[in-house]
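Onboarding guide, step 5: your first structure request.
Type a short instruction followed by the sequence, for example:

Predict the 3D structure of this protein.
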Amino acid sequence: MTSQANNLHTTREHDVMILVACGASDRQIGLQLFISPWTVRHYVRHACVKASDRQTCLRA
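The system replies with structure tokens like these:
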């Protein structure tokens, strides 16, 4: 399923990236979205590759 706001990313990738942009840690994002920190990193990596965002990818 893709986000209506950005057809490039899934809804979950979009949710994770919004929280990353707000400065939340992987652990904080995981707690809020009921997923593991490892899963958060997975979503961030995939979203970065799709968006070719090297700065955020370095964080992941």
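Each response can be followed by summary notes, for example: Helices lie at 11-21, 26-33, 37-51, 54-59.
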